[in-house]
TrEMBL record:
Coiled coil: none annotated. The chain crosses the membrane at residues 12-37, 175-200. The keyword Hydrolase does not apply. Residues 317-364 form the SpoOB alpha-helical domain. Pfam families: sCache_3_2, SPOB_a. InterPro entries: sCache_3, Sensor-like_sf, Sig_transdc_His_kin_SpoOB, SPOB_a. Residues 44-177 form the Single cache domain. It is found in: Cell membrane. Keywords: ATP-binding, Cell membrane, Kinase, Membrane, Nucleotide-binding, Phosphoprotein, Transferase, Transmembrane, Transmembrane helix, Two-component regulatory system. It comes from Aerococcus kribbianus. One of its GO terms (molecular function) is phosphorelay sensor kinase activity. This is Spo0B domain-containing protein. It is a multi-pass membrane protein. One of its GO terms (cellular component) is plasma membrane.
Amino acid sequence: MIKLLKKWWLSTTVFTKIALSISIVVGILVSTLYIILTISQYHNMDNSYRQRLTQIGETIANDERVIGTVRSGTLSEDIVNYADHLERLNDLDYIVIFGSDLTRYTHPNHQLIGKPYQGDDDYHEALNGQITTNIGNGTMGRSIRAYVPIIDPNTKRVAGVVSLGTMVDAYYRNIYQSVIFGALILIIVLTLGCIFSYFISKAIKKSMLGMEPIDIARVLQERKAMVENSFDGILASGDGRVIVNNHYISEHFNLSVGDILTDKLPEFDSINYGTSVQKIFYRNWLISKSPILMKNDTIGDFYIIRDVEEIEQSIQSLHSATKYGQAIRNYHHNYLNKLHVIYGLNELGNYEQLKIYLDRLLNEEVKDINAILVLVANVNVAGVLLEMSENFKAEGIKFKLYISGEISNTMTVAQTMKWRQMVNRLYNYLISSGVSKVSTKLIETKKSLIITFTVDINLINDWKENNVLVTDRLIVYYQSYEKDVPSNVSNITNRR
């Protein structure tokens, strides 16, 4: 049974769990309070009723007519009527007055008047001058009663006893009615508690966006995975502090969860919602800022951050890939056309024109393009070389490219982007320097990719990069496949 309940509890919704838990707690609290109040009320009613009997009995015992009757020992119709009146007036079942010799002077059953008192021996304490209350048996049955002594003011001795009370059935009937009334109140309170728990559970469920705890846990794990594995900077702040960040933010901005955002990066204080370019740490960053809303209230800010230079490099990489794709398409198209021409000249037997046509196909420009497409496996590197060849040609600069063997696709994305950026700077530098002839050589070793530029004029060495060597008419750029770039590129080129 316990296992079934546990299985049901684990499979039920959080709404049911919360509503049921609140209802059970309210039910236990209200039931406990009801039991305590019922017990307390019973004792209060019992004590109150006993005191009431005692007060009525004292009033009767102090009546001069009653004292005179028990003193004289004579029966009196007036005393009988007086007792009957008080029974009706105080809703009592009986009032019995008897003397010290136990002779009854009043009784609800008038036939028993004048006869000896019968019942339990609880009246002995009253004959000794003490007031007592108890539940006992008499001629009328079991009752709650009081014994009050009648003191003769002349002799100061007990002249008789007043016994009065209510039958137990009637007494408990009153208590039962009180308990029923309390039970109705209990049911009403429990019903209100269940209704209250329903709305509380519904409000909690709404604040949880209608999700179960397992759904929330899964969403948090998914969010964590997306944030940690994003190539963009992910940052969220609340109350001015960092509440979510990823490795990109930690690496570039040295921020940790709990840091005050504007203390470390004052620039963020002036960033507006939307997308904008901000200069931080002497670099341009593309920052998208949006509010974190809960019930239409802004509780924080969310940022997506990307280095502008990285975006530009990505665009350039796509441009290189596009160039490479166009070159392959043109190469394939031209290849088919050339095959048709060669086939046609050969079929016609026009061998002299065929020789001229083949010589033209083997010119330097075609060699360069074919070499790039065939030997270079890295699309970005091939795209840069094709773009460089077009730019030199557009500027009227004679260009030759030598590729020393096959170039693998060993470089990482970051290394490729760095290589592309540097080569673009180098050939733009050569164009601006006024060269008219450029010979470029691409060499791959086991651990690096080297490109050299030999030109026809003397160059000014104003390059500060460790992996760029500039002499009078030679530029050498070395890109390591390893993390650490050698401090002196000339050592590598000398060993070559």
